[in-house]
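Q: What residues go here?
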């Protein structure tokens, strides 16, 4: 089994962090993992994407042309990468910033108002955690409690924001369970 996930959006949306958290959770579950970030020189506001490859065997190459799944946090990312996703995969669409759909009928669309939901739980900065947890809940790629522990560990040095991120995590899971 090998699963490839592309996270994509604007720099500053927490794209690389979301991918890193998923990779850590997969590693803690005993999977082989590759994490390959890519971002423009302007970083914040520029295009950022990251590929995570998770497998039960050693990973031959972390470079993936056709990922199993896509987490698209902005419209340019959806437009650029949606057609690359393998049939049967999940495409998470951040409907707060993307008014369109993928146009594909051979994939599962997970529509998540990540930014709007993050604002509702306390901060737009938690949109990536909402998207991550919704994606993980829908795909069941990693154990949700393990992923939640990875989120807590990531923010351990900023303990004041852990409750916000836990609230965002739970909101993402709730959104996925309703879809």
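A:
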């Amino acid at each position: 089994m090998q699963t490839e996930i592309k996270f994509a959006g604007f720099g500053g949306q927490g794209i690389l962090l979301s991918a890193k958290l998923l990779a850590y959770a997969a590693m803690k579950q005993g999977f082989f993992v590759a994490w390959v970030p890519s971002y423009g020189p302007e970083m914040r506001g520029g295009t950022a994407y990251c590929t995570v490859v998770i497998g039960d065997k050693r990973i031959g190459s972390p470079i993936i042309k056709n990922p199993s799944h896509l987490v698209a946090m902005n419209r340019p990312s959806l437009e650029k990468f949606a057609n690359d996703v393998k049939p049967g995969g999940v495409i998470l669409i951040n409907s707060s910033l993307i008014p369109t759909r993928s146009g594909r009928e051979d994939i599962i669309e997970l529509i998540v108002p990540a930014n709007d939901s993050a604002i509702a739980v306390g901060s737009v900065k938690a949109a990536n955690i909402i998207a991550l947890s919704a994606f993980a809940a829908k795909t069941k790629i990693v154990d949700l409690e393990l992923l939640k522990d990875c989120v807590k560990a990531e923010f351990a040095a900023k303990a004041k924001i852990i409750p916000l991120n836990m609230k965002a995590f739970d909101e993402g899971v709730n959104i996925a369970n309703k879809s």
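A: Context that may help when evaluating the design: The chain has one domain: 2-178. The beta strands are 2-10, 32-39, 47-55, 69-72, 90-94, 108-112.
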